[in-house]
Amino acid sequence: MAAFRTAAAVVDALPEGELERRISTRTLTDLRGIGPKTGAAIVQAHAGDVPEYLARLEEAHSELVPLADDVAEFRSTLRGDLHTHSDWSDGGSPIREMAEAAIALGHEYMALTDHSPRLTVANGLTAERLERQLDVVAALNEELHPFRILTGIECDIHVDGSLDQTDELLGRLDVVVASVHSDLRAESAAMTARMLAAVANPHTDVLGHCTGRLLIPREQREGRRQRPRPESAFDAEAVFSACVEHGTAVEINSRPERLDPPLRLLSLAVELGCSFSIDTDAHAPGQLDWQDNGCERAVETGVDVDRVVNTWTADELLDWTTG
Ligand SMILES: [Zn+2]
Ligand SMILES: [Zn+2]
């Protein structure tokens, strides 16, 4: 099924009209990540049929449920998601639609973590816009109770390791995910120092997609195209040890094109005693169920459920992020 997930992510990332054009010109399989079988399944799904290959697969392996039991059980312990985007930054949907999708999945909370100002390509929020968003979230929370939208940010980590938002605002947010989005090819010593500073920052709760790798190409806003890229180089043992020391959770990013950290680094983080947050980094409501990907990897590397902060209740979680 991994091939289908990859193919789905590739199709998801296509610009408007591109899927139709590729179907009519029979050039779907020119795309990296789409083979003849997945290509045929996409064409059939697009025409509204149950893809023949999928149907045959299901018939032949009716005992093969989409998720292994242990993964499904792990997934069922998650109460929320700590990394999501709305159309305030580079997501495609209003906050309310993201929250309603999270409610439909059975989540109790969702941290709204739109981008910080420096990430202009992702329409990052200035301090003023973030203040306005906090009011919007407060009003939605009254309406959606007992579901809870936790206020938050995905904050850029500057090259010097500082965070891309005012201290005052960072202090008011429920959840701060800190991520590297620039200078990804820096040499290891510089990247390590940068990440260590961010992890030690008392405002930081979660270290987002730590290696920055992209497994397949993807489209961004305004037709910008990102090519696959390798992991950033950094001293993972030092960074993960600092996460343990400062109580910063390591994110298990579930986006199919990220799947970050890679398994060997995830195993190292487990061994060093890190806490984790299994997040989708969803930019659309349908992506909120990508946590399956992260749970698969957590089970594979022996992550203990108790070490996953988003298995906790919202109150427990807030005790931790403000503590
Ligand atoms: Zn990010
Ligand atoms: Zn993100």
From TrEMBL:
**One Pfam family in the UniProt entry:** PHP
Q: Lineage from the top down?
A: Bacteria, Bacillati, Actinomycetota, Actinomycetes, Geodermatophilales
Kindly provide the name given to this protein in its UniProt entry.
Putative hydrolase
Q: Which GO terms describe its cellular component?
A: cytosol
Q: Which Gene3D superfamilies match?
A: Metal-dependent hydrolases
Q: Which is an annotated GO molecular function term of this record? A: zinc ion binding
Instruction: Classify the source by domain of life.
Output: Bacteria
Q: Which UniProt keywords apply?
A: Hydrolase
CDD domains in UniProt: PHP_PolX (cd07436)
Q: Does the keyword Glycosyltransferase apply?
A: no
The Polymerase/histidinol phosphatase N-terminal domain sits at 80-159
